[in-house]
Amino acid sequence: MKRNSAYIKGVFVIIALCFGLLAGFGQNNAQAFSNQVIQVGATGEDVVELQSRLQYLGFYTGNIDGVFGWRTYWALRNFQYEFGLPIDGLAGGTTKNKLAKASKYDKAWVNKQIDTGKKFSYYGGEKKSTKSGAAKGGTATKGGAAKGTKGTGQGQAKAKPAQVKPAKNIPNGYSQNDVNLMANAVYGEARGEPYIGQVAVAAVIINRVESATFPNTVSGVIFEPGAFTAVADGQIYLTPNDQAKKAVMDALNGWDPTGEAEYYFNPDTATSGWIWGRPQIKKIGKHIFCN
Amino acid sequence: MIRTILIVLLFVAVAGTGYWGYSEHQEKNAVLLQAENNYQRAFHDLNFHMDSLHDKIGETIAMNTRNQLSPALAQVWRLTSEAHNDVGQLPLALLPFNKTEEFLTKMGEFSYRAAVRDLDKNPLTDKEYNTLKELYANSTEIQNELRRTESLAQKNNLRWMDVEMALATNKQPEDNTIIDGFKTVDKSVEGYTDVDFGTEVSNMEKMKDRDLSQLKGKKISKDEAKKIAIDFFQLKKNVKITVESTGKEAKYDAYSLTLYNPETKGTTYMDLTKKGGYPLYVLYDRNVGKPKISLNEAMMQAEDFLKKHMESTMEMVTSDQYDNIGVFTYARLQDDVRIYPETVSVKVALDNGDIMGYEGTDFLLAHVDKRTPVFKISEKEARTNLNPNFQVKEISKALIRNDINEEVYCYEFLGTLGDDTFRVFINAENGNEEEVKKMKEAEPSYNDI
To answer: What is the DSSP letter of A236?
Structure first.
């Protein structure tokens, strides 16, 4: 492994010299990572760098998406094992130094790929060719093999403009689209309410999904005819603000200010007498929540 | 001349308006009809599914051979879920129809449990046959009532749109047939609330009926609640606190506190149990800036917080970063066993490490001071029950609630199969595979959320 990386390093320096990019690479090495300890679940640029470097060395085979998921975790642990480091799955000081020494990272190129949303990989050998091709179309590379890999790589990217935008953590059992739909419903139903009232409305939706007496999906609950006034009058199609999304995320992560309520109503506008008969739990903002 | 032109113009205007109005009217009718058709479809589907459900339950009672019974019960399960789905598409939200929906869910659960069970080893008991008979009788009633409603609706050309309008405006519709029909169905189901669905289904009920009466400590007053909150957050005097009590019929007796801090301009919401004054949840609402600390540092903050406020030893089970927020879940650790039902969540702001939230309801509901772990089989024996392709990476002990809501001690194997990561729980008493959980990878952003 060590000899291998030394070889890669050597090849790299030569090519870097060719392109006159030596200064750039030197900088990259010196400024590897910020000084945070990176752990499972983290997102952001450091994770992109971690994934890129692990992929450069062949440990990480997933998408470079900026989220420290399980695949990154196992890749990091393999790296720690191979390099004789304590295997804890945390990217701390020594791990990061070892990683920075063993691999190269071209931040600008990786970030550019992420921004354009193309599918890309960052393996040690193949990377250079893809990179030079992307950076300057004019400067032709020599190696035929390198050209070949580049061709297939780009062909794929064109045929399938798959978006590898930075991914997001979403609470287990739900998708980003569920979050959006719920944010729409919360915004339509409770945009004038205090924050806690919005979390409460989102929590009621989740309580209903889990309840035996309501449909079992987020969309089923939200679009149940007559269940929400915002659905009936079309306010659900307004564009939700960030606060509504935050409220939904809190509710999905388990916060339930309602005490497991399945109904709520606005006492000023409620027309149904039946709803008043439900056992009331508490009032949050303008809404009364009940069982 | 001018007069003629004016008259012509006026005529054109009137004709144009008339045409416009007519086409609008047509369009509106088309849309209404579309909605009506959807309701009609769901209604007739519901009737069809209830019909087949009724027949299928009847068949299961008459059946004798086991290899016939399992598929028939699986059919019952499927039909209950179809029927439940149909109900969800009808405008019944404002009508008391939940007894029927609950009944359908329980019937589905009951038939599913029986269908997946090895009926050769565990044949249906007499009690379960009785349950089936009762279900049959009940579904007869539901079917008859729905059929009657359906035929009357067809005969009198009743429209679901009218029902919806009537329910939404709380006015009496001209013809009450549909509403009355559904009310009768729900009434008839009420008569069957004491059907014995067996321990597995009633375990679900028990989970729903948990409350906080087992908590230690005295009942606290509103003023004591305030004091607890001030201690909890180490607040200064200038914070405005309002305390409200939950309603009499709330499942969890609690005080809801709202704390406004004029210095930080942040509002904190908190619920404290009346008995003992334990925090159910805390939510702090303020604007969080760009992340400045790492998820790891945030975790330290969360752990400090838990050490300060909880007596139990907690171990982190998940950590996730949502832009500028870190959310951590902790399970209680006792004798190296992770007690998964007793979890708390902590939310930390990544701009300065403030604790933004705490959720402890599940912990309070499930908490038992001292559990006695039972591990009859060894780790090695448990391992033999794993899928041979599964690569084990980490092993620990755990207590989980399985799919029939029983608490079971398990060996927890964290590992990979292909590119995916799984948590596999093997029962520590009999070696059964209790649960296999696929660990979610981050979802690519198809769009910005």
So the answer is: G
Beta bridge partners of A252: none
Query: A176-290 is classed in which CATH architecture?
Result: Orthogonal Bundle (1.10)
- Is the Cβ–Cβ distance between B425 and B435 less than 8 Å? yes
All residues of chain A having their beta carbon less than 8 Å from the beta carbon of residue B440 are 170, 172
**What's the full length of chain B, in residues?**
449
Identify the residue whose tokens are 């609630």. Answer: B401
Whether pTM > 0.90 for this model: the answer is no
Q: Which of B48, B75, B53, B44 is nearest to B140 (CA)?
A: B53
* B79 vs B428: CA distance, rounded Å: 36
Cβ–Cβ contact B230 with A under 8 A: no
Best probe of the B interface among A189, A208, A214, by most B CBs < 10 A, is A214
Do B294 and A38 lie within an 8 Å CB cutoff?
A: yes
Nearest to A251 by CA among A200, A212, A211, A214: A200
Inspect the interface and report whether the beta carbons of A282 and B105 lie closer than 8 Å: no
Count of C-beta atoms within a 10 Å radius of residue B158: 20
Cα separation of A263 and A272, whole Å? 13
Indicate the helix (H) or strand (E) that contains A56.
helix A45-56
For residue A39, which residues of chain B lie inside 8 Å, CB to CB?
294-296, 299, 319
Whether B325 has its CB under 8 Å from any CB of chain A: the answer is: yes
A256 touches chain B (CB under 8 A): yes
- CATH fourth-level superfamily of A2-159: PGBD-like superfamily/PGBD (1.10.101.10)
- Please check whether residue A267 touches B, CB under 8 A: no
The closest CB to that of A196, out of B269, B320, B440, belongs to B269
Q: Where in chain A is the domain with CATH 1.10.10.2520?
A: 176-290
| B3's tokens | 């007069």
Q: Is A11 helix (H, G, I), strand (E, B) or coil?
A: helix
Residuewise pLDDT in 10s, chain B (449 residues): 888 999 999 999 999 999 999 999 999 999 889 989 999 999 999 999 999 999 998 888 888 777 788 888 899 999 999 998 898 888 877 677 878 888 888 888 888 888 888 888 888 888 888 888 888 888 888 888 888 888 888 888 888 888 887 777 766 666 677 888 888 888 888 777 777 777 777 776 777 777 787 888 888 888 888 888 888 887 776 778 888 888 777 778 889 888 888 877 888 899 998 888 889 999 988 888 888 888 888 999 999 999 988 888 899 988 888 888 999 999 999 888 999 999 999 999 998 888 899 998 889 888 888 888 888 898 888 888 888 889 898 899 999 988 888 889 999 999 999 888 999 999 998 888 888 988 887 777 665 44
> Which DSSP string do the residues of B222-248 spell out, in sequence order?
HHHHHHHHHHHHT--TT-EEEEEEPPT
Residues of chain A with CATH 1.10.101.10: 2-159
**B219 with B153: CB under 8 angstroms?**
no
**Token pair for B67:** 């290899």
Given a contact cutoff of 8 angstroms between Cβ atoms, the answer to whether B413 and B431 are in contact is no
Q: Which of B197, B443, B446 to mutate to test the interface with A (most CBs of A within 10 A)?
A: B443
Are A41 and B321 an interchain contact pair (Cβ–Cβ within 8 Å)? yes
3-state secondary structure of B328: strand
A118 — alpha (psi -120 to 50), left (phi > 0) or beta?
Answer: beta
